[in-house]
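Renewal narrative, Specific Aim 1. Our central claim is that a sequence can be written position by position from structural information alone. The example that follows is taken directly from our test logs and has not been curated for this report. It begins with the structure tokens describing the chain, in the order in which they were read.
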């Protein structure tokens, strides 16, 4: 192990300590604002954060563990064994939309693998403010590659000696670089200077905790200095609990760019906060918000750039939880408009070289109808944004009209964002937002919107694949079930099938009605173990075998025995339950046998209903020499048989005997004797009482002559 236990705390061993030392040197040589070092433990597929610089563990928590397959710069660097450079927030938004949405900071970033001869041992990530050149310098490249070589050799040597570098219980936080340490006299002079200032001064460390505030700041905040020292302001002062304060602090810390906001101290004292970041934390200047600019309402065009992180997290979570295309459309149209304060939204998809309207808000249907089916060759801003795969922002109607004089304007809309939805390098759709006032679309706004579009594109592409697989699965399953049941004189029959699977899951439930002669028929129902293509294929084979044997006028027990031998010979690794019955309408009797399937419900002509007792046989496919006893019952006029699969009565935590008895009672109480009504009654009751965790097949047969 590379860690040692002291007083219950895991501490890094010497090898990891040397690696951290190399990392600290790299941060100093490259003058990175933030650095993160990861190790990839042997046999694992998750990168673990072991050291960081320029931020606290708490702020770095979302990036403490990352899968090698995740869409992040450091994961890409590890997978591809190369330097990954992200030259700004726009590029981050396009390449890594989820990160761009969750961390819309004005930064540039480099990620590189820590690799040896045969494997990758980890990765490193460095972040600079946006004023850094768009490409790494030669010195930076050499420093990064030199660190990766040395760190790779160190990791190989540690593993060769049986002590691979593994993460400690907490990542090491490197002490911030200070140009010098002031003496006591100098520190006291700085304190006196801050106390004499007429404005409030406050210092926050890398974790957001107050390390100093002067008397003016305490008075403006309405709290004693001792109450705030060591605390985070937004956690101690309820009126600063709005996520905007913490979000501005994080943005300033990451981008090394000053920022400001106003807040109201109850009951009505408006205060202005200006945050100035540095390598060791953030300085905050607090003053009364007396000017019109400070006391006026927030600018509409600034609201998007300051969108709270928690709102973005909620929006990202809602999108990533969407499954089908309809889910994506519903979440986008319902949540993006209020979150981004737009007056209009349109979501379009690309299908067969044309645009299709998937959803919209804030537009009249007749206006949107003109864009449905528009070819991808038309000279419109929508198609232009798709063709170039580049977001287009129009800050006013004049700006829009200059670019597209013939483009229609809806109402008084005065600003637009056309955001292509890209997945795996190809356009899958477009998101259009419109506003009824001019809007400048700041860099932060454009970054967030571009990131959002990238995330929607990925989610939409995945949802379309889901819908295609779902449709394929259902088409396959429908093809394996009877397309139409035959008409049998003397029998009234109704069948129901209700799938409960998701995506490409295919149930193995089946049913059938087979004509065996002028006055006889066979009924069967069954359920193959599993929900996949293999289960569906076996279901088709079992149903075909039962159908073939039924026309040979064999006893039910013999039909199941022969079908069982077929399933055993196929050796699919799956078992099948099956109930088979032969109905002789001329002699008014029925013979039934079961292979581990639920017994049918029988309702007698007098209305009494019970679960028919049948001697059980083994499931099909267990052993080739199983016997299946046959049971004969009378089949009088008005008798009803209900055959069903376990989805009708079974679910986790449900008493099957009770649900079966309830089902029988509902069959007794049904006020209509038609097979269709009885089938609907049973299905409706089951859906009200049994969670839909499995497919349901139901076959209701009523003797009417």
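The sequence written for that structure reads:
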């Amino acid at each position: 192990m590379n860690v040692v236990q002291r007083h219950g705390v895991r501490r890094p061993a010497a090898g990891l300590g040397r690696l951290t030392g190399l990392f600290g040197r790299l941060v100093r040589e490259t003058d990175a604002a933030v650095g993160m070092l990861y190790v990839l433990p042997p046999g694992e597929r998750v990168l673990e954060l072991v050291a960081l610089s320029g931020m606290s563990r708490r702020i770095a928590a979302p990036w403490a563990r990352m899968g090698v397959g995740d869409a992040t710069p450091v994961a890409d660097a590890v997978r591809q064994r190369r330097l990954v450079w992200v030259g700004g927030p726009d590029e981050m938004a396009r390449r890594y939309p989820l990160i761009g949405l969750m961390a819309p900071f004005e930064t540039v970033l480099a990620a590189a693998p820590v690799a040896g001869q045969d494997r990758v041992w980890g990765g490193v990530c460095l972040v600079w403010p946006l004023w850094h050149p768009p490409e790494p310098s030669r010195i930076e490249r050499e420093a990064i590659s030199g660190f990766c070589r040395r760190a790779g050799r160190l990791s190989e040597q540690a593993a060769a000696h049986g002590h691979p570098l593994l993460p400690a219980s907490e990542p090491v936080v490197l002490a911030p670089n200070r140009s010098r340490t002031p003496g006591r006299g100098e520190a006291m002079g700085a304190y006196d200077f801050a106390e004499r200032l007429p404005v409030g001064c406050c210092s926050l460390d890398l974790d957001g905790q107050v390390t100093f505030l002067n008397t003016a700041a305490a008075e403006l905040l309405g709290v004693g200095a001792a109450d705030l020292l060591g605390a985070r302001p937004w956690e101690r002062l309820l009126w600063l609990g709005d996520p905007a304060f913490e979000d501005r602090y994080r943005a300033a810390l990451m981008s090394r760019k000053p920022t400001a906001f106003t807040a109201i101290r109850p009951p009505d004292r408006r205060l202005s906060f200006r945050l100035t970041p540095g390598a060791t934390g953030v300085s905050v200047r607090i003053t009364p918000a007396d000017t019109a600019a400070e006391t006026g309402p927030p600018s509409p065009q600034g609201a998007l750039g300051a969108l709270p992180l928690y709102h973005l997290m909620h929006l990202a979570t809602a999108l990533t939880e969407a499954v089908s295309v309809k889910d994506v459309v519903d979440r986008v149209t319902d949540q993006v408009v209020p979150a981004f304060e737009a007056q209009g939204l349109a979501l379009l998809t690309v299908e067969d070289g044309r645009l299709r309207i998937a959803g919209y808000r804030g537009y009249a249907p007749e206006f949107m109808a003109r864009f449905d089916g528009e070819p991808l060759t038309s000279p419109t801003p929508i198609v232009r944004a798709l063709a170039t795969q580049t977001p287009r922002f129009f800050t006013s109607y004049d700006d829009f009209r200059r670019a597209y004089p013939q483009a229609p304007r809806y109402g008084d809309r005065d600003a637009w964002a056309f955001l292509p939805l890209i997945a795996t390098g190809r356009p899958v759709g477009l998101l259009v937002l419109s506003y009824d006032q001019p809007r400048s679309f700041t860099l932060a706004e454009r970054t967030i919107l571009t990131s959002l579009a990238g995330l929607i594109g990925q989610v939409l592409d995945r949802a379309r694949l889901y819908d295609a697989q779902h449709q394929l699965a259902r088409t396959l399953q429908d093809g394996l079930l009877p397309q139409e049941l035959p008409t049998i004189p003397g029998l009234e029959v109704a069948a129901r099938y209700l799938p409960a699977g998701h995506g490409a899951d295919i149930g193995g439930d089946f049913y059938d009605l087979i004509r065996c002669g002028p006055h006889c028929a066979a009924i069967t129902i069954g359920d193959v173990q599993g929900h996949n293509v293999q289960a569906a294929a076996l279901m088709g084979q079992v149903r075909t075998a039962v159908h073939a044997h039924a026309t040979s006028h064999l006893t039910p027990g013999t039909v199941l025995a022969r079908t069982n031998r077929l399933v055993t010979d196929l050796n699919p690794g799956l078992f099948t339950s099956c109930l088979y019955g032969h109905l002789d309408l001329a002699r008014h009797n029925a013979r039934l046998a079961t292979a581990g399937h639920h017994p049918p419900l029988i309702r007698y002509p007098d209305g009494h209903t019970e679960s028919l007792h049948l001697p059980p046989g083994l499931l099909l496919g267990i052993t080739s020499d199983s016997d299946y006893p046959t049971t004969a019952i009378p089949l009088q006029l008005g008798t009803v048989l209900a055959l069903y699969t376990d989805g009708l009565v079974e679910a986790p935590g449900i008493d099957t005997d009770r649900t079966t008895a309830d089902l029988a009672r509902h069959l007794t109480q049904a006020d209509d004797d038609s097979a269709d009504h009885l089938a609907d009654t049973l299905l409706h009751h089951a859906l009200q009482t049994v969670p839909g965790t499995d497919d349901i097949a139901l076959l209701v047969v009523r003797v009417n002559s």
